[in-house]
Amino acid sequence: MTSPIRRAPRSFCPIATTLEFVGDRWTLVIIRDLLNGKRRFSEFLGSPERITTNILTGRLADMERDGLIEKTAYQTRPLRHEYRLTARGAALLPVLQEMCLWANRFWPQTWRPPESFMERRID
Amino acid sequence: MTSPIRRAPRSFCPIATTLEFVGDRWTLVIIRDLLNGKRRFSEFLGSPERITTNILTGRLADMERDGLIEKTAYQTRPLRHEYRLTARGAALLPVLQEMCLWANRFWPQTWRPPESFMERRID
């Protein structure tokens, strides 16, 4: 799931560049969970989208390599890590907020996010 | 490239739902081109990201099935189509604008979009 060296960028278009980091079905779902306070592997696995262990492992490694998240050990024996957003990862919040507005407008069955999420601002 | 029937949604989370439509490396690049006035297959192929014919064919079919774009014939013999954004597709503009702000902030080598793009508002 993880490529140790990222491909050469397709262009310096800011949209294409952003998609090199988050242009897949899962990365922004994990960022959503982190913004909502989840920190641990088992917490991400428990989200309603039912990400698989393999995909989650790969995405977390990619996101760490890309500087979107940081990993720290919270337990040894057995070793367990928790994950936190970096400033770069947390700054994706407005992208997520606009995705919420789009989905809520065109797919009325989608959940309305809490106001606290929609009103949050990045630093 | 195209699945005639879309998978069942992973959840009714508006972020996960949006990613069912645009959670890949190419769809939002094509939407960018359409917002910038491109209409024809050869114009999308000419963009700096060098999408391949196969991927472009698949993405356009997916986007039409999902109601993000509409296809009309502009020529017969040989038959040629042009593509336009629907209201649903055009309403992804704010997602693209936020991706531009994010990339410009964290990846200084990325292009600055024209002000006309960043100041555009959806209906």
What would you say this structure looks like, in words?
2 copies of one chain form a homodimer. The first copy, chain A, has a two-stranded antiparallel ribbon with strand order 1-2. With 123 residues, chain A is mainly α. In chain A, a hairpin with a 4-residue loop joins strand 1 (69-75) and strand 2. The relative contact order of chain A is 0.14. In chain A, 48% of the residues lie in helices and 11% in strands. The termini of chain A are far apart. Chain A contains 7 helices and 2 strands. At the A-B interface, helix 1, helix 2 and helix 6 of A face helix 1, helix 2 and helix 6 of B.
Question: Could you give the topology of this structure?
Answer:
Two copies of one chain form a homodimer.
Chain A: H1 14-22, H2 27-35, H3 41-45, H4 53-65, E1 69-75, E2 80-85, H5 87-90, H6 93-106, H7 115-119
Antiparallel strand pairs in A: 1-2
How would you describe this structure in keywords?
homodimer, 123 residues, Arc Repressor Mutant, subunit A, two-stranded antiparallel ribbon, 7 helices
